Structures are given as structure tokens and as C-alpha cells.
Amino acid sequence: MPKNIRYVLFFIILIFSTLFSGCFSGGDVPNASGDRVPPTISILGVDTPHKTEAGEISGNIIIRVQAGDNVGVEKVEIQFKDGGGQVKKTLTRTSVSSGTAQNGLYEITYNTADLLNATYTITAVAQDEKGFRTSVNYGTALLIKNDGPSIGIGGDVIEDGDVVTYPGPQDVKVLIPAGYDGIVYTFNSTTPTMGPPINSFNKTRLDGSGCSSINDACEVTIRVEKSAVLKVRAYKWNSETNEYEYSGETTITI
Q1: Topology at the third CATH level for domain 40-144
Q2: 0.85 exceeded by the pTM?
């Protein structure tokens, strides 16, 4: 083959190998917009104003996150994970508390009573407008401990975790706390995590003075016909998030 033809073929092969190397490379390849840069995110702190000396956390906490991206952060997620690493709750924010989508502060207030009492870790995730995601873990685990509704049988006040023995069927009185719509409960089953209408009492369905207002505490009665593990949580509707929120859980064994 003449030398000049070999040179031409060499340059053609070189050009094509350069053009297509990105298509088959396992490295960082830009998307259609040319964006190669993933977002950045850091957890600045978690404020726990109701933390006890024993380290138990209840009520509202405030999570402060800094996130940025050259294109713009589309959303920030806060994930609460249990001891097995399973995500039990995800909070999503699409707008900054201050700053811009390129570099902004996100302050997220969350009522921990929505979680079951347990130890959780927090993971924050930033996603940019092109779909790149970056995550970071908060270094301190949170021990969540919120009180559930008060329970009474006869003249006795039953505490969370108590095992009690009474002869025959019992009327269990449950106090729906002020500010809640009603209660959800289960017998010998999984934890109640959904709102009405399954196994629920709603204040507006009750007879008696003062029970129709969410601002009043109200007592309801659950009939227990035989031995059972009773789990009770209060619930309320959050019109801002369009989700149910819950109190802590009270569990007793009868």
C-alpha cells in the first residue's frame, strides 16, 4: 500500500477513535447539556430544642443544610433511616430558605412525633436539574422518644409498655390530645401508621361536650374483648403538606 494512503487511513482512524471514545468510556461523561458537575451538600447542624439529659429527642427539630450546584439544585431530600438502614421518612424541599438554587441554605422543621420511637440516622441528598445526586450523612444518631396518647382502664392510668391483667372484656379509655383530630389503633397487629377511616376515632364523630373541636382534649373508649396488644397513636391532618401527622405511640398488653 502506498505510504500516502497509509497516512490518510491513519488520520481517519485517529479522528473516529477520538469522536467515539466518549461513547464507550466508563468515565464521567457529560449529559446533553454538557454538565459534568454533581451538586454539593453539607449538613450544617440539627437543632434539637427538646432534647433531654438522657439524649432523648421529642417534638420539632430543625435541620440546616447547605447545597449548591453550577446549574442549580432541583431538590433537597432529608432521609431518616432506622438501624437497618431502611428509609422510614423522606422530607423533600424544592425551594431555598435563603440564597439561590446555585448556592442556598435549606432550613427544614420536622415534628419527630411522626416517627416511631427508635434511633435514626439522617442522610441529606441534593439533586441538580440534570439528575446528578450527592448525599451526605449526619454524624450523630438521633434517639427519638415522643409520648403517645394517655390510656386508662377503670381508675388506673396505664403507661406505655405496661403489661396489665384484668378479668373479662375491658373498656380502654384513650385521651385524644388537644390539637389532634383523632386516634388510630391496632390489636395484635402492626403499628398504626395510616389515618382514618381504618380503626380510627374522629373527634367530630363523638358525643359529648367539647369533643367536636380540635383545640380540646377528648376521651374515647375502645372495647377490648380478649387479651391483646393495643397500639394507639393520635393523628392530625397537615393542610400544608397534605399528609397525616402522628403523635408518639402508646403500646400496652392486656
Answers
A1: Immunoglobulin-like (2.60.40)
A2: no
